Structures are given as structure tokens and as C-alpha cells.
Amino acid sequence: MEQVLVVGAGFMGAGIAQVCAQSGYQVHLSDVSKEAIENAQKAIEWSVKKLFQKGSLKDPPADILKRLSCEADLKSAESADWIIEAVLEKEDLKRNLFRELEQIAPKKTPIATNTSSIPITRIATVTKNPERVLGLHFFGPVPFMNLVEVVKGEKTSVNIFEKSVAFIRTLGKTPVRVHRDIPGFVMNRIFSAAFREALDLVADGIVSAEDVDIGMRLGYNWHIGPFEIADNAGLDTFALVSRSMKALGEEMLVSKSDLVESMIQEGRLGRKVGKGFYRYTPDGKRIPWDEKG
Length: 293
Prior knowledge:
This protein is α/β, with parallel strands linked by helices. It has 2 domains: 3-178, Rossmann fold, CATH 3.40.50.720; 188-285, N-(1-d-carboxylethyl)-l-norvaline Dehydrogenase, domain 2 (Orthogonal Bundle). The chain is built from 11 helices and 10 strands. The strands form 2 sheets. It has an 8-stranded mixed beta sheet with strand order 3-2-1-4-5-6-7-8, with helices on both faces. Helix 5 links the parallel strand 5 and strand 6 (133-138). Helix 1 (11-22) packs across helix 2 and helix 10 packs across helix 11. The longest helix has 20 residues, at 34-53. It is globular and about 55 Å long. The chain starts with a strand and ends in a 5-residue tail after the last strand. 44% of the residues are buried. The model has no long low-confidence stretch (mean pLDDT 95).
């Protein structure tokens, strides 16, 4: 059984670990935070039980959970066949982690980053074998989103790139090949351009966030609107990505408004805390911000 090490037990890391375990891999989920590990374990256990009840999984939850182990260090990198980094969107943090992982992992093991904005080549510069470094940009919630961008850095080998495309398919996901390494890759650049305009329109008082979401669902057949997406991902995550894009010289993809930053200061981080662009009732119902639940 091939082994996968996922580093970072947050929302994305937990989701990646879950789908890998569901797909038959032995998964090690690593995080220095005991709280993050505990939260991830609870979330994964709850999710696989729900999916099994709905008939979406072939293996019983107990079998899937047996394939998952959690740890505070990177020792399992020694025997990992795949390594996927999913820590915070901070370049220095990722570079330091890749420097450490390369010293532990077998030379044949691909080391992937789940970054949504930082060019793979920038992260790979700290490694001695950049040909095995690439991007595997999952979309969240990972168990329900079928898209993964497979991003080729300047020095990623063709063999590692194609091997990773095949790996993503074993997870039941659809890979989109990104052949040129640019900030934000493909899907996030397209979404960032749309969200930038939507956010500026709301900040300027021209339209409400709810009406933008309604318009994009009904007028452009989006399944959910841009502000629903932002709340689901977490506004603190959006802010990190925006700062990263700005630092990389991509200001044209970032809103001129400070609306998101001010919402974060108010504790409005999105669905995970029950308030963002919308309010959320204890049972998860979404209601407009200016209405009472």
C-alpha cells in the first residue's frame, strides 16, 4: 500500500488526507498543533460516516480511518511515496518546510505544495532536486470538489508531472494541467478577477453581496456565488492569498477595498465562525447579513 504524507491539518490538509485514505492509501497527517490534529480527526471521522450513510463510499468508515494516522513530526516522510504540503499560505513557511522535507524523503518521492498563489518555482529554489517539486492545488471542501490543478514548475520533470496527473485520478478527482508556473495559476486568477470586481462593487455600495451571488447563480450558472465561496473558504484565507498575490506583483487581481480586512478585524471570518458576508445559524443555514436568523 502506497503511503501519503500530508503536512498541515487545517481545512485543506484534513480534506486531502481524507480523500487519500478513502482511495486506499495509507495516510500520515502531520501538524505541530495538537488542536489542529484533534479537530482534523473529528472532522474526518464525521465526514466519512456521513458519506458512507449516503452511499458515497465503498469502504466502511472504520476501514478508512484505520488507514489514517496523525503525528506531530515529519518522520513518516522517510517512507512516503507522496508528500503534499498544505500549511498556511506563507512563502517562508513553505520554503523552510520543503528544505526540511527534502532532507528526509526518498529522492524518488514527489513533493507537492497545495499553494493557491505562490509560484512552484519559488518554493523549489530551496531544494537540491527541484525536478520532483510541483503543485497539486486542491479545491475545498476537498471531499466534494473534483478539481485539482497539477502545476509544473520550471524544473519539474515531465515524468513527475504526468505521474502526478495519474495520482490525482486515483483519488477520483479531475486534473487540470497547468504547464506554465505563474502566480495564482489558472482557476484562482480567473476567480480573483471576478471577486475583485464583485468586492469593489459591494464596498462602493452599488449592490449587496447577496444580490451578486444571486446574479452569478442565475445569470452565469455558477453553482454558488463568489461571496458564498469566500465564506466557505474563510476570509482570513482569502486575505492571505490577496497579500501573497500583491507581494508577487499581481495587484490587478486584488481589490482596492479594505472591506475583507475590516471584516476580519470584526471576527467575521466566514462560515467556520458563523459570520462572514452572511450569517449562519447553528444548523448551518445561511441568511443575509442584515436579516435575523
